[in-house]
Write a structure and sequence with these properties.
Blueprint (H helix, E strand, L loop, with lengths): L6 E3 L2 E3 L3 E3 L8 H8 L6 E2 L16 E4 L2 E4 L8 H9 L9 E5 L4 H14 L4 E5 L15 H14 L4 E5 L5 H11 L5 E6 L3 E5 L1 E2 L4 E2 L7 E5 L4 H14 L4 E5 L5 H9 L4 E4 L1 H6 L2 H17 L15
Parallel strand pairs: 3-16, 4-7, 7-8, 8-9, 9-10, 10-15, 15-16
Antiparallel strand pairs: 1-2, 5-6, 6-14, 11-14, 12-13
Helix pairs in contact: 3-4, 4-5, 5-6, 7-9
The structure holds ligand RRO.
Length: 312
């Protein structure tokens, strides 16, 4: 039986649904090229700001048995660096490029989007509404009115299709509110669920100490800690955004979790903590595991089970 793992969406084709979560293996050209040359089906760059940033003091990432905590603080090489990468990107090779944008202000996001629009590059922006790690700056994604105003302004300056990276939500009323906002923008074609669960605290009982330096140890959680929250956000937004795609991100470390995300309705899925810990070989491994699982279940393509999660 021949398996087809390809995904066609946004007018693009990916040979398979896996790519990196923004932030992991995508800050430098060398890292972006590692993802491009791996088994991943697409590439996304680190969230960028207009000016380069060093980010927060180290240590700012720590892995645990159940996942990771980070407070990187948006270290990135600046918008122009990623724009240069996008200009030289070999799109014809069939591995789409997404650019993650996370301006320090709405004005900065508008400037980056306007500049991107002028270049006519086939890369697609994913606007990050959910960085949890900037001291003193709340996440835009938790303020629906501010999201509405920002999305309106961004939609006005950017004539192409785009997506947003959302924080996790924890209440059906908040899913409803955000879906109402997102559904007002037809060119907003996808939402990525979820960014890390913000402001967790990991404690090392031996040292009686926090494990990362910024914000007295508070940071965004990823990995196995967040899988059920990620799945809930994927499923709930798939239900509420019938004309959009949902990209699943959170807790994928094998073919099983990739399968769960797609069963919950994800069009494609991103790998974060697992990629950070394992390196780019994770893509080929997870893909192989997903293929074996599909084969065992008699599924030939992703559409055979996408969004077909049963309830009791
Ligand atoms: O750089 C970060 O600290 C960071 C960002 Br921008 C984000 O969106 N999510 C995250 O977990 N870390």
């Amino acid at each position: 039986m021949r398996l087809d793992l390809s995904v066609s969406w946004l007018g693009l084709t990916m040979t398979n649904p896996l790519y990196n979560a923004s932030g992991v293996m995508c800050r430098s050209v060398e890292e972006l090229e590692q993802v491009r040359h791996s088994a991943a089906g697409a590439v996304i760059s680190k969230s960028c700001t207009l000016q380069p940033r060093e980010g927060n003091p180290e240590p700012r990432y720590c892995a645990t048995l159940l996942g990771s905590i980070n407070s990187m603080g948006l270290p990135n090489a600046g918008f122009d660096y990623y724009l240069d990468y996008a200009r030289g990107y070999p799109y014809e090779a069939g591995k789409p490029l997404f650019l993650s944008l996370s301006g320090m202000s709405l004005q900065d996001n508008l400037q980056m989007l306007a500049s991107l629009a002028e270049q006519y590059l086939p890369c697609i922006p994913e606007v990050n509404l959910s960085c949890p790690n900037l001291p003193g700056k709340p996440q835009l994604g938790y303020d629906p009115a501010a999201c509405l105003a920002s999305l309106q302004a961004m939609s006005d300056v950017y004539p192409g299709v785009f997506g947003v990276k959302l924080p996790p939500y924890f209440d059906p009323v908040h899913f409803d509110q955000m879906a109402g906002v997102l559904n007002a923008f037809p060119r907003l074609r996808f939402v990525t669920c979820i960014n890390s669960i913000g402001n967790g605290l990991v404690i090392d009982p031996e040292r009686e100490c926090v494990v990362i330096k910024p914000k007295d140890g508070l940071g965004g959680l990823g990995g196995a800690y967040v899988l059920p929250t990620a799945l809930a956000n994927v499923r709930e937004f798939v239900r509420r955004l019938p004309d959009k795609h949902v990209v699943g991100c959170g807790g994928i470390s094998s073919g099983r979790e990739a399968f769960m995300h797609i069963l919950a309705g994800a069009t494609a899925v991103q790998i974060g903590t697992c990629l950070y810990e394992e390196g780019e070989g994770a893509f080929a491994r997870i893909l192989q595991e997903l293929a074996m699982l599909m084969e065992a279940k008699g599924y030939q393509c992703l559409a055979d089970f996408r969004g077909k999660l049963k309830t009791l």
